[in-house]
Design goal:
With 103 residues, this protein is mainly alpha-helical. It is built from three helices and two strands. It has a two-stranded antiparallel ribbon with strand order 1-2. Helix 1 packs across helix 2. The chain starts with 5 loop residues before the first helix and ends in a 9-residue tail after the last strand. The model has no long low-confidence stretch (mean pLDDT 85).
Length: 103
């Protein structure tokens, strides 16, 4: 017996305000059935491997620590040089074409 039926997919589509064709409903029901079966197999493996032990959930396969670098001020490009290479500049900023009709 499938874990999810076509009718359940149709109900989920209705709740999600998705207009799916009959072919799409059947296709998604098959795909969701495979996904739910895979999740069930993973759950079974966790139960077999855990055997009563608490296995902490992980968000990453390797333990991570703070991997950011310190915020150190460094020399950067001169604003005049950068603005000098721009097609248009105004008031120490890049000038770009107006895309909205607002003031």
């Amino acid at each position: 017996m499938p874990a999810i039926t076509r009718e359940e997919v149709a109900h989920l589509a209705l709740l999600s305000r998705l207009d799916l064709s009959d072919d799409e409903l059947a296709h998604y029901a098959e795909q969701l059935d495979v996904i739910l079966g895979s999740v069930a197999r993973v759950s079974e493996a966790v139960q077999l491997l855990g055997q009563g032990q608490d296995i902490p959930p992980t968000s990453h396969a390797l333990p991570l620590v703070n991997v950011t670098r310190p915020d150190v001020e460094r020399p950067c490009l001169d604003p005049a040089d950068v603005l000098g290479q721009a097609p248009a500049a105004q008031d120490q900023r890049f000038r770009v074409p107006r895309i909205l009709g607002e003031d």
